[in-house]
Specification:
By secondary structure, the protein is of the alpha+beta class. It contains 4 helices and 6 strands, in the order αβαββαβαββ. The protein is globular and about 40 Å long.
C-alpha cells in the first residue's frame, strides 16, 4: 500500500479485501504539548519514536504516522489498522499512547476512506488531511 502510485487500484483492492468484522481502523492525533511542534527535527523524533516503540503491535497492526503542517505548529497524526474492534492492548500499553486522541474510522464513509487512503498512499512532500506532510513513517 505505502509504495503504490495507482490509487484507483489500491482503493479497489482495499474495498474488496477489508474485513470490518475482523479489523478496525483508527485515526490517531498527538496532543502537542506547548512547543513540541515548533521544530521539525524534534517533532520528527517524536513521530519516529512512537512508531519504534509500537514494535510489539507489529504482528497484528499496520500504521502510517506523519508529521504534518508548518513550523511552529507541526502536528503528528496517523492512521492505523489492527485486529479486532478495540484498540490493541499492546497499543494501550505504549508509553505515549495516552497522549493521543484515537478516533475509530468507518471505511464505508467516503470521508473516512479518503483519510485512510491519503495516509496510506501519499508521500512526504504531499498534502495529507489538509496539511503538508514532512515525515512519513510506517509499520
Amino acid at each position: 500500500i505505502v509504495n503504490t502510485k495507482d490509487t484507483k487500484e489500491i482503493t479497489q483492492w482495499f474495498k474488496d479485501g477489508y474485513e470490518p468484522e475482523n479489523w478496525s481502523i483508527y485515526f490517531l492525533k498527538y496532543d502537542i504539548y506547548k512547543d513540541e511542534g515548533a521544530e521539525l527535527h524534534v517533532t520528527s523524533n517524536l513521530c519516529g519514536g512512537f512508531v519504534d516503540r509500537a514494535e510489539s503491535c507489529r504482528r497484528g497492526a499496520f500504521g502510517v504516522h506523519c508529521v504534518l503542517g508548518q513550523e511552529p505548529k507541526l502536528e503528528i497524526e496517523g492512521v492505523w489498522m489492527w485486529r479486532g474492534q478495540d484498540v490493541l492492548p499492546e497499543m494501550k500499553d505504549h508509553p505515549t499512547f495516552e497522549y493521543y486522541d484515537a478516533k475509530k474510522l468507518d471505511a464505508t464513509k467516503e470521508e473516512d476512506l479518503k483519510l485512510i487512503l491519503d495516509f496510506w498512499t501519499k508521500r512526504a512532500g504531499e498534502e495529507i488531511n489538509g496539511k503538508m506532510c514532512h515525515k512519513r513513517t510506517h509499520m
